[in-house]
## 1
Amino acid sequence: MLLTLAFFTWLMAKITLEYIPYNTDVGFLRIKQQYIDIDHWRIAFFIHVYASLWVLFAGFTQFSKKLQRNNPSLHRTLGYVYVLDVLLITGPAGLIMGFYANGGTLSRIAFVLLAVLWIFFTAMALVKAKQKNFIAHRNYMIRSYALTISALTLRAWKYAITNTMTVPPMDVYRVVAWAGWVINLLAAEIIIYRFRQKRAKKISLLKREIG
């Protein structure tokens, strides 16, 4: 799992470098030229792009059991970096961008909902950590990070669709606007369910041993 997350982090860093220091006619921005002169959209975009690297890296480290066990203070610090970035910077910027998504109303609903859920799951992860409910904290972090990597899975779905079938570009965008994060969230719920099953088995075995 960590190798997969490391790959996603590296790939996102590679994509982000295209926009540094301030390139407005590369990558994704080539299809957003109608919005590039809207100040709040442009500011939100570059904030979202630059800050997302910190979210990916900090989130990636949160799933290292070795780090949690050997350096819990660093785990907490990087966790706060992740949470504060999503709640105060990247999440709100993504929400603003969602209202200007290509593909019409259907796509805009998808991206606005993505941003709202991303902020909500991340906030709940913080709340559960403060309450020392670490199982719920882990579950919400899994959901949050599943949405974090949606920027990459969206591109993967777009590549898969455009290279296997002939579909109008805007229709592709409408599909990946939902597939890019809904499938991630379903996968997160499967992972959470498996953790729950493993924990239930351990508790059951422990009760048998005690009994």
Note: Residues 2-210 form one domain.
## 2
Amino acid sequence: MLTLVIANPHAGGGLVGRIWQRLRPVIEERLGEVSVAVTDTPEDAGARIREAADSGLSRVIAVGGDGTNNSVVRALVEVADERGLDRIPWEFGMIPIGTGRDWARTLRMPTGPDEVTDWLARAKPHICDVGILVSEGHSRPFLNVASAGIGGDVDARVNAVKNRRPWTFLRATLASLLQYRPQRLRVRLDGNLWYEGSAYIVAVANGRYFGHGMLIAPDAAVDDGLFDVVLVEGMPRHRIIGALPTVYRGTHLERDDVHHARASRIEIETEGGEPLGLDVDGEHAAGRSISCEIRPGFLPILLHPDALRGHGIEKGA
């Protein structure tokens, strides 16, 4: 079983690069035959996946943060599409060493590199959905959460910070809330008009967390073939700032000014055709209108059996 490990040395403010020499022998010991690629871009990751796929590739492990996950999944989807595959045949796992680690929260992964490597060594493949965001004619896969609205502004602030800390996301969120003006949006779910009006954010969630621990979609499941869509209406600044703690607790869905639904296709556009800030797995983007479609069961992810017990990732588990 050939495992390709793709490491982003810049993830976590350079943390991956600093601990890589210690981490590499642990990975090789616990995961068997390993090929290691240190990459900086999705294009680099795609090239290494193509090479490994021709040499008996079985697993791909991303070492980094949510942005690294997005780069690797994006490359996996592109390679699978190039080869005309209905499903990605290579198992995907991660060692979370980035700043946010929100995808790892959904999967109930440990945070220490040694512990998570052991976790992966005992993990089994589990079918996972993948989202495809299309904006301005360009498509972009996402694994965790894509959002329109204030999330793009928060990303821009976070990405401008060189040395990120656990509070970087919260500080950026508060700064955005103090300055961001909600846009008027029109949102359709599976072809039907769902919401029209002012909104701070529309989150299209496959996973449960974003923004370094915000439980934006507490009922989301990565394997149900549907997105959880969460929309926060426009409201006075004092109300939105006062409501912020409810997102960390996951109780915001109880509010009358927060809307929640499930759908397989989402279309979002601004009423005046203004540019719309986007967040795609923690990476900043922009567009005047977007659509998101889900590919059910498209990616086998590596999961420890404990992740599926109790309040695991499956609905009703």
Note: The CA atoms of residues 130 and 143 lie 5 Å apart.
